[in-house]
Predict the structure.
Amino acid sequence: MHPLHQKIIAENHRREECFLSPYACPSRLGVRFNPEAEKIPDAENIRPAFFHDTDKIIHSLAYTRYIDKTQVFALFDNDHITHRVLHVQFVSKIARVIGRCLRLNEDLIEAIALGHDLGHTPYGHDGERFLNQLCIEAGVGFFCHNAQSVRFLMELERGGEGLNLTLQVLDGILAHNGEMLNERLIPVTGKTTDQFLREYENCFRIPGYSKKIYPMTLEGCLVRICDIIAYIGRDIEDAITVGLIKRTDLPPDIVRVLGDRNDRIINTLALDVIEQSYGQNYIGFSKDIYRALQDLKAFNYEHIYYHPLVKEQDRKIQGLFQSLFHRYVQDIEEQNFSSPIYRHFLENMNAEYRQKTPPARIAADFIAAMTDDFFNQQFKDLFFPTRFGLKIHDQKRD
């Protein structure tokens, strides 16, 4: 190793030892499933392990597809509403500023935050629900986006080799579950690779299992809480933008505690988390703030996520998922090599994946990888007749 590199690595470790909370996860504790696969071993890399993981994530194919994955409002034509790529950046920024105040590892926070939603399907949580039902009916288990995020990073990227991320990053992504709200989150310290793999596999085998697992690091706990901090107020702003609600619709009791604008809501929640969690081995809210956040979440579900305009196209979207899923399964079983699932997906996967993965799970992986626009175009290409355009044949008589 170059002497300068050795000096930089030592300084990185020393900086973390001096600054990080005793409850934080230092980069030197990063665990890889296959350390021998790294071109530069973590011990010799000037990029700390979790920092390196962020680089791997943002250069992945799955990350590039964030740009056209919608968050909540998939059917509204407005360039100023939130997409997944923006949401994960919000989560990262909020979690990092809180983490800095709590003296946690910002590199680990950023990697978890930027990777946590990679497994989301087209049409967000509705698409996730439809794909889960199709997997159940096909007998290949279950589908949930957080486990699928790990699946992309650990098993599907690089043609089926995966990216060899650290256990702590993959665990934080698997256990992020921003739909679950907790007053206090305590990390499950000492989690082993075997325990993580059991939890990961159980997400595909046991219904609702992803709601029962918790992160192994305080950084993972923080990202999980910041997921809801990032979307709860932003979804309100988007709903106002597209005309679903008015700001005056927000309940006064909630507004009095949290505020009525996204910036105020984020600031109130972030400061409360800092005050409640500083110097502690947990991440949490005060009782009054937690109660108001619960009420605001219930308001969002009733007036935004289950709004008739948002849900009225569900049956059509479900039909798209069913049609594409069954078509892809049929194409694989019949070895239709001209099918899009071969041309756009299976041709790029290694032999082990193609041979060992059931057709229904392959179809789920392909669909989960799609952006909303690609998903829609796939349906048109496969099920709409192709027009030949105007053709004039000039026949001259002898």
Remarks:
- The longest strand covers residues 184-185.
- The mean pLDDT is 93.
